[in-house]
Amino acid sequence: MILGAEMSRNIVLCFLVTVACGASAYGRKLECSEHREMECEISNFTIVESMDLSEYEFPDHPHLAFGTYPHSDDSTYVVTIGKELADRLQSTEKLEIQNVSLQTMVLWTNLRSLDASHNYFFELIVEPGQNYQLRELNLSYNRFQSIEFVQALPALRTLDLRHNYLESLSFSLFDMATELWKLNLANNRLQTISTDGSLHLPRLSTLLLHDNLLSVLDASEWRFSMLQELNVARNRLRYLSMCEVNHSFPHLQTLYLDENRWECGHLNATIRQLHQLGVKAMAYYDTEDQEHCNTAIDEICCY
């Protein structure tokens, strides 16, 4: 009888422990900071690879922010967002996750706006066949060397890739991005931009390619009918190949050409086309800071 009573007491204790553990499965609820009004900001929190997140309850909020950017925050590190967490953030449509040492992230279909700038980000993981709704994507100041994920994001409207590690790029990746109106590729290491056949981006209004290493830019297959601003300043360009300005960029208003290595004959022919359309070649950088050149056309140096 004593043995039976002892066994019963142990069973009851085990049951209580099991209930307690079950009750705490999502027992660590992450609270929104009071620093922001419209966003749910989470700080003083760390996520690393292989971390068990089952005990955490994440806020069900449409606009989530990890960290306190632009203010310094040494308490928040989100190194990765894996599939487990991505599945639990399906109700989040806008995510800010700057300056938290992010490296990799699985994208979820309902996310419409992502600002993951100022990290160590190098891999955005997408799954084929998914209907991604992402429209605004800021990946500036990161470590991307490849952007193959763009092919899975047909709803993109703005893409900011300033200050990454891109060395070459095929614009054919943007074949499906027919909603794209602003593309910023400035301050990379781009040496070549290629296109497989004709490329038509009907809404692209701004294309920023300044501060790269381009020596040749072949835009002869581009049909950017709504392009208004093109910036190719501070590259190594000798000539810009186009079918005709009015054919490739019929609505062009602003073209920045300064701080390149233009061949004078080609530059003169391009500027004549621009004049016919009422477009003036512009200097993006302060001319006082530029090296003196012996020959200039519309204040753009050539050699």
From TrEMBL:
Pfam families associated with the record: LRR_1, LRR_8
Keywords: Leucine-rich repeat, Repeat, Signal
Domain of life: Eukaryota
KW Repeat (keyword) present: yes
Stretch forming the signal peptide: 1-22
SUPFAM superfamilies in UniProt: L domain-like
SMART domains: LRR_TYP (SM00369)
Name listed for the protein in its UniProt record: Leucine rich immune protein (Coil-less)
UniProt organism field: Anopheles merus (Mosquito)
